[in-house]
Amino acid sequence: MVVGGLAAGLSVIGTIGGIVGTVVQYSASKKAEEARKKQMELEAARARREQVRRSQVASASAKAAAYNQGAGTTSALAGGVSQIQQEAGRNVQATSQDETLGGRIFAANAQAAFGGLISSLGQGVSNLGTSVSNASGTLTRLGYPNKIPFVG
User: Fold this and answer.
1) DSSP alpha helix (H) spans, 1-135
2) Is the residue at 41 inside a domain?
3) Share of the chain above pLDDT 90, in %
4) Better-predicted residue by pLDDT, 141 or 46
5) Domain span at residue 137?
6) Residue 120 covered by a domain
7) Number of domains the chain is built from
8) CB-based contact 134:8 (threshold 8 Å)
9) Dist CA 78 CA 76 (whole Å)
């Protein structure tokens, strides 16, 4: 009878440990995903800044070369600088679009992780119910007639 009670208790403790482990794992996973998302956002901001810097350097180089060749006031220079700026704008826009898509992926991953948590918790509660049900005979023999401990 003591072995049966011990087995029932260990089963309940194991199930509760599994539930707690699932919650801890979800919390750690969520923190890691938040850190990866922040890293992605920082990389996107850096890429945008770098693109603007490159555009400024290219424009300045084009202007310097044009002035050195005596073409500093021509429409060719204006067209070349405009083209440089448009390309930079497209690249910055592409980086922003990539960041937006990355954000959507992170949101979907967070939903999937939360769904996994709920599923695992449900399984844990189900296992706990099964353990209590399986131990009901032992619990009755240990002095809990017609009632389950901690429930009523």
Assistant:
1) 2-68, 75-134
2) yes
3) 41
4) 46
5) 2-48+92-141
6) yes
7) 1
8) yes
9) 5
74 in any annotated domain? no
Confidence (pTM) = 0.66
- The answer to whether 51 touches 95, Cβ cutoff 8 Å, is yes
- How far is residue 117's CA from residue 13's CA, in Å, rounded to a whole number? 19
Would you call 113 exposed, middle or buried from its count of C-beta atoms within 10 A (0-12, 13-18, 19+)?
Answer: middle
Q: Is the dihedral of CA 128, 134, 136, 139 positive or negative?
A: negative
Q: Would you state the pLDDT for residue 134? A: 75
* pLDDT of res. 120: 84
Tell me the three state secondary structure of residue 126. helix
d(CA 135, CA 132): 5
106, 37 in Cβ contact below 8 A?
Answer: yes
Give Dmax (Cα) for the chain. Answer: 104
Does 66 reside within a domain? no
d(CA 138, CA 152): 17
Kindly report, residue by residue over 94-152, the tens digit of the pLDDT.
999 999 999 999 999 889 888 888 888 888 888 877 777 777 776 666 666 555 555 54
Q: Which amino acid is at 26?
A: Y
State the residue for tokens 């005979």: 137
The answer on pLDDT for 53 being more than 70 is yes
